[in-house]
Amino acid sequence: MAESLLQPVGEKTLEEVGDEYFDELFVRSFFQPHSTNDKTFVMHDLVHDLAMIYAGEFCFRAEEHENAVEIDIKARHLSHNATGNYPISKLLGVCDRVEHTRTFLEINLSPNIPFDMENTPCILLSKLKRLRALSFKCFPLESLPDSIGELIHLRYLDLSGTYIVTLPESLGNLYNLQTLKLIGCEKLKMLPDGMQNLVNLRHLDIRATCLREMPKGMSKLKSLQFLSDFVVGKHEENKIKELGALANLRKSISIDKLENVVDSSEAWEARMFDKDGIDSLKLIWSSNKSRDGVFAFGVKKKDAADSQIERDILDKLQPHSNLKEVEISGYRGTTFPDWLGNSSYHNITTLTLQHCKKCSVLPSFGQLPSLKHLTISDFKSLKTVGAEFYKGGSCLETPFPVLETYILLN
Q1: Quick one: which of 380, 319, 391, 383 has its CA closest to 351?
Q2: In a domain, 90, yes or no
């Protein structure tokens, strides 16, 4: 997609076209499954050698210093293998010759591999202005140069596994950016306000970060196809209702810090019931916080009111019936809304409920026709599991018809 190799077909998204391309290449044995990792694909040695011959002078892989050919001025795609013995300094020294490069990927870099070229990002960004795809994955990088905003052709940026604390506001200048990966950036606390300018962004992956809240104006990113996490804020421009305008979200999403949702009308504005492309949903409340932000040791009447608010919020977060996986963590209501356990969710295969310490009654999960994996843990107020757990308003003759694993930890 970053190299504009995907050609739109009818109403299909670019992601769907890319999936079809990959499937076709797989059928033709260009790719094949990894022998031990079922989520990884590899190339056969012969196919790899053929691809290298075909790529010719347009691709340069900096791996072995000995007998390495000189980089060709026609090179458009560069990669540096951190496990090889090709000095990154040597590659940087010839960047002036390949200023038309479209791709730079650092591969196989990990924390146990020494890497002492701290000025590498600055040099690369100053010389390779026409980049479309850039990966600094696992770089020992604590900040990204402001000059990143000058790469106006950039479509793909991977900063996963870096030590970045903040991102420059100039990132908002990358109006062509389609993919931004920040997986495992554990020191990253905030995204820049300029994020709202990335109107062509389609894929934002912020898994395993520690964001305090989302930046303002996420509702402007209407091209988003994948958003791994949404951290609910307290301000008008980063509340949960910002999700309402993101109608094209697909695959999975985790909605965190739901304690910041004030009432059910805000939750309804997220319009989760409209998002038919979401098949995996996580709803997470931060533990041990009451609705007003203090620890929950209040009057019983107030507890009852809070519990009803929580139930109404979860009720209005009702997802589309296409859902396949659900996880709810930290929910503080005493009962669940009617949609959870309703047989209309005929696609749900995996269900996880944890840290719902006030819940005393379980929904009718026995009526979910496709449920295979059920986990319930840390329900401190649950004393008994009654008949309602198996049979609800549905007429399924046999509860849990296809259940394979059931874990109950209290």
Answers
A1: 319
A2: no
